[in-house]
Amino acid sequence: MSRSEYNVVLPTWEGWETQFEISDALGALLNGRISRVAPEDKKQPVHKSASTCDSLLAVHSDAIQIGAPMGTGEVIGTGNTYILFSVGLMGLGGWMTPRDADVVGWALSAVMFLLGFFAFSFALRMSHLAPRDIPVVFNRKTREVSICVLGRLRFWRFWERVGIDKVITTSWDDLQARSYKIMQLTGEAARDTHVLRLLWGEAQNPRKLEGIALIGYLGWYEDAALWRLWEHIRRYMEEGGPPIQPGESLRTSGAGKLPELPPEVIAAAGGPALSVEEVARLAGATGVAALGATITEEDLKADATHQLRPA
């Protein structure tokens, strides 16, 4: 990782969430501790350089789609690990089944089997039967952000595909970004990982947290490079920055297809997404300059040497 990727201008956050009132249900989803908090004033930079960090899914005339950690491809490998673990757990539950009328033994066997089945159902559907990614659409014309929400899982129907249940649209000005430090279990070991979360409040009560969304990727051991993604989004929304940085490309990892967005979201974005070839042309220095982007020498050097994750 190049030194410029560490040029985050946000201080380390000390303490807990102070802007939002968080319900117990949403609080359970905010695992980990806050690492850094983006300013409410989105005209303030968060990093000295910008990058899509291999998280750009699509470019529209007036909007960009940013993916979530689910679309990095890492979910598939982790899911396969948990599938094997859960199958083993179910097998252990079957092996523990007593041959007599031992009520305690039958209960322990059933609990072990059910735990394994639930873990199997979740891992299978999220890694192989879910959309390739979960897009978040940033529309700089309407200054709105549209967030896809996955449907609920029916654990007994483990063969059913997971689809997008709804799309929530909120104001860009009301959206807040934080990086969180969490403990990630990889199947072999545990490691510190950072994630970039978006938080927004209710329309009638902005201080009451309404929802949470993840964007970007899983940042191993540090969050500095993650903030390059938010800086890219901030420049795009606030300063007329380019939809894609020089030399970068659309994210193609993951399995399956991207979910279809509602027609009204596509229409507000200026119509269907540009083709891969059109986006590739935008990523050229000439195409980006035509969009009025201000690219520094440091940005170009950082983008040329950018690596998504440390080896």
Tell me what you see in this structure.
This protein has 311 residues and is an alpha+beta fold. It has helices spanning 24-27, 74-95, 103-128, 226-238, 263-268, 276-282, 285-290, 297-304, and strands at 33-37, 56-59, 63-66, 136-139, 144-150, 164-171, 176-185, 190-201, 209-220. It has a 5-stranded antiparallel beta sheet, with no helix packed on it. A hairpin with a 4-residue loop joins strand 7 and strand 8 (190-201). Helix 2 runs antiparallel to helix 3 (103-128).
Key words describing this protein structure:
alpha+beta; 5-stranded antiparallel β-sheet; 4-stranded antiparallel β-sheet; 9 strands; about 20% strand
Can you give the helix content as a percent range?
A: 25-40%
Helix segment tally: 8
The strand line-up of the biggest sheet is 2-3-4-5-6
Ranges where pLDDT stays below 50 over 5 or more residues in a row are 285-311
Radius of gyration: 21 Å
Task: Tell me the fraction of residues in β-strands, as a range.
Answer: 15-25%
Task: Please sum up the structure shown.
This protein is α+β, with helices and mostly antiparallel strands and 311 residues long. It has helices at residues 24-27, 74-95, 103-128, 226-238, 263-268, 276-282, 285-290, 297-304; strands at 33-37, 56-59, 63-66, 136-139, 144-150, 164-171, 176-185, 190-201, 209-220.
Give the topology, please.
Blueprint: H1 24-27, E1 33-37, E2 56-59, E3 63-66, H2 74-95, H3 103-128, E4 136-139, E5 144-150, E6 164-171, E7 176-185, E8 190-201, E9 209-220, H4 226-238, H5 263-268, H6 276-282, H7 285-290, H8 297-304
Antiparallel strand pairs: 1-7, 2-3, 3-4, 4-5, 5-6, 7-8, 8-9
